[in-house]
Amino acid sequence: MDLTTQNIMYCKSVGSKRADVLRKELKVETALDLLQVYPYKYTDRSKFYKIADIESEDTSVQIIGEFLSWETIGVGRGQRLSATFTDGYSTIECVWFGGAIKYLQLSKGVRYLLFGKPSIFNHTYNFTHPEITPMSKVTAQMTQGFEPDYVTSEKMKAVGLNSKGIRVIMRELVLQLRQQGVPEIIGADVLERYHLMGRTEALCQIHFPTNNAMLQKARERLKFEELFYVQLRLIKQMKRSEATEGFKMPIVGKRFNYFYSECLPFDLTNAQKRVLHEIHSDLKSGHQMNRLLQGDVGSGKTVVALFAMLLAIDNGYQACLMAPTEILASQHYENIRRMLKDTPVQVALLTGSTTKVQRKPIHQGLQEGSIDILIGTHALIEDDVQFNNIGLCIIDEQHRFGVAQRSKLWGKNPNKPPHILVMTATPIPRTLAMTTYGDLKQSVIDELPPGRKPIHTIQYGLDRKQSLIHFLRDQIEQGRQAYIVYPIIKENEKLNLKDLENGYNEWVQTFPEYKISMLHGQMKSKDKDAQMQRFISGETQILVATTVIEVGVDVPNASVMVIVNAEKFGLSQLHQLRGRVGRGADQSYCLLLTRYDLSKDTRKRMDVMVETNNGFRIAEADLQLRGQGELEGTRQSGVPFDLKIASLVTDGQILLIARQAAEDILHKDPNLEDSFNEMYKRRLDVLRMTIVNWGDIS
Ligand code: ADP
Ligand code: MG
Predict the structure, then answer these.
(1) What is the pLDDT of residue 694?
(2) Are the beta carbons of 568 and 489 closer than 8 angstroms?
(3) Band of the pLDDT at 635, cuts 50, 70, 90?
(4) Confidence of residue 241 (pLDDT cuts 50, 70, 90)
(5) Residues lining ligand 1, CB < 6 A?
(6) pLDDT of 564 higher than 90
(7) Among 554, 555, 581, 614, which is best to mutate for testing ligand 1, by the most ligand atoms less than 8 A from CB?
(8) Whose alpha carbon is nearest atom 13 of ligand 1?
(9) Is 60 exceeded by the pLDDT of residue 698?
(10) Amino acid 143: pLDDT
(11) Range 456-612: architecture per CATH
């Protein structure tokens, strides 16, 4: 039977009961699916150790030797068997507990192959529950090459599918695979150009590698394949929108020029100019723009967005700007209105808390075309929001919006899809940008406006409260304002809210002479606005808040950011929060208040924050620290697909090559219509059908 269609039920050593479990636990249907469940590690069983060579607890080892003596210690459940094993040079203790003892038959003068993972006990290595096999029973197969280990689950183990059980099935499958092969899914030219192993060979080698070099070649090939198809899909999507007709906006008109020469209170940085130029080239190209704008916190994305909107308006279109929170939407609204001053550009704000009465004229203005710019939250993608002639949608986002939402924006103009500009709140690592936003063209603002003083970041023990109070008072006396942020973790919101409220009360008692605002996500938006407004106007000196202030909030006079329990925040969130200060002319400070007993990774996070203000570097460090585990299948990190073998943390190089390969193919044949590209097209269709998450990004 063909491996690509063969039901797992009919694989050797599987059967219907195990097949059910495999289907549920591993989401596999066919023999080929099962072959694509890759080992997570290998043990090199061609290698024999001496006891003296053991140097870590990480790798299993095998040793040939004899048992010198053994004794059973204790009774009942606490019973253990302790044996002394020698390789002729030194000795090591082996221990078995409980039921396992019954099955153990040790004989003196018999040579055994011992296999197990060393562990350290009382400052010396020993083995707990090693596998032991008399040498007379050791088969060649047992000590050949790399032995794969597979991830299993409790449910799988219950039907005998532990790592060893899966290994047995895989061995059979690989035999079948060697005979029958599977169809190749990467073109011969690509395989040759990048020196990649064939698919059948790679699948054999990934499970039972002949040697380390072959294993590496197999991994490389399978990682490439995985990333290649992700890229093929994304770039195809990108080409599709590039080919989609878009509104033509060639004119640099009155409003744009007036704003540039009369209203803009500063010169644009070179990076801002460059990015604006990139956007303008898209807007006048006649094709729909789908572009990502990345820039560090405070790099001035908003003004770029505003210029882009003015371009649209000068060409006779409306524009909208969608923000992730109400606070941010109102702030954008206020800022943009202030910047536009006396220009005749009409701006409206639409959020969840805009009342019915307020909505009516907005809806009308949008339909008639008297409103030029609409700023808002998700509320602006609702169906009843209709434009006269929307030409540009800008999304200022915190996390990636679903494509469903993006496509709603596409539909906001029945004539042609409006141009789309997505702005990220903080920089994202290169590999993530290439996958998560791989279907968008990229623009980067890699320069901060001149005159910014780097924020001084200090890590503070939570118990140094007196010194903190002293510092805060000193800053406030100099006329500055301070944020004090408390962590709020979703699952536990009530509890943490108490932290915030307690904290607030404490600060009120500590600083009776100052006024303090409080802000958190569970407040009514009217109250939020009022509290925020008091802080913006300088009426309050301190804002005690949760991370609702994270995104975009801009109060130039605030120069101190205190983050309580900083260890509870991720790096990008810390960077976001820190970015709330350092916006004015004064020296700004970020104080990370932490416990003392920090884990290694947490300490590293704090160190990175103290060492650098560069958001791009922080984003890379964040990815390295969080690692693939965090990313795998997690939507929250924005990766809309699962990677089985490739890693966005370590496989950046392969990703680049895979993207190039995909780009080369689509450059010549954007719709994959040529007959020699049919394989790719079919494969994309298969992936679309089988990988649920992929549907989201098409
Ligand atoms: P972000 O990229 O984080 O959204 P903003 O757009 O909020 O940054 O800009 C941060 C601050 O920098 C704003 O107060 C803005 O007016 C100011 N700014 C933007 N561009 C420049 C510039 N070229 N020179 C001086 N200040 C600028
Ligand atoms: Mg912003």
Answers:
(1) 45
(2) yes
(3) very low
(4) confident
(5) 266-269, 272, 295, 297-303, 449, 552, 554, 583
(6) yes
(7) 554
(8) 300
(9) no
(10) 77
(11) 3-Layer(aba) Sandwich (3.40)
- Is the pLDDT reported for residue 391 higher than 90? yes
Q: Which fold has domain 47-143?
A: OB fold (Dihydrolipoamide Acetyltransferase, E2P) (2.40.50)
- What is the pLDDT averaged over residues 563-570? 91
Report the residue among 303, 422, 423 best suited for mutation to probe ligand 1: largest number of ligand atoms under 8 A from its CB. Answer: 303
Banded pLDDT at 630 (limits 50, 70, 90): low
Containing 244, the helix (H) or strand (E) segment is: none
- Provide the pLDDT for residue 204: 97
The CATH 3.40.50.300 domain(s) of the chain lie at: 254-283+299-424, 456-612
* Residue 352, pLDDT above cutoff 80: yes
0.85 surpassed by pTM:
no
pLDDT, mean over the chain: 89
Nearest CA to ligand 1 atom 16: 300
Q: Edge to edge, what strands does the sheet with 481-485 contain?
A: 456-461, 589-594, 558-564, 481-485, 542-545, 516-519
Span from the CA of 382 to the centroid of ligand 1 (angstroms): 30
**Residue 654 token pair:** 């392969």
| CATH code for the part of the protein at 254-283+299-424 | 3.40.50.300
Q: Find the farthest-apart pair of alpha carbons in the chain and give their distance in angstroms, rounded.
A: 98
Put residue 357 in one of left, alpha, beta given phi > 0 → left and psi -120 to 50 → alpha. Answer: alpha
| 331: alpha, beta or left? (left if phi > 0; alpha if psi -120 to 50) | alpha
Give residues whose Cβ lies within 5 Å of ion ligand 2: 552
Q: Give the 3-state secondary structure percentages of the chain, helix then strand then coil, rounded to 5.
A: 45, 20, 35
- Ligand that lies nearest to the alpha carbon of residue 426, given by its number in the listed order: 1
* Candidate from 263, 266, 375 with most ligand 1 atoms within 8 A of CB, to mutate: 266
The CA 555 to ligand 1 mean position distance, Å, reads 12
Residue 572 in this model has a pLDDT that exceeds 80: yes
Query: Is residue 16 packed enough to be buried (19+ CB in 10 Å), middle (13-18) or exposed (0-12)?
Result: exposed
DSSP state of 259: I
What contacts 451, CB < 8 A, 6 or more positions away? 585
Nearest ligand 1 atom, CA 269: 23
480 Cβ contact list (under 8 Å, min separation 6):
557, 558, 559, 560, 586
Atom of ligand 1 nearest to the CA of 335: 16
Give, for 423, the enclosing helix (H) or strand (E).
strand 419-424
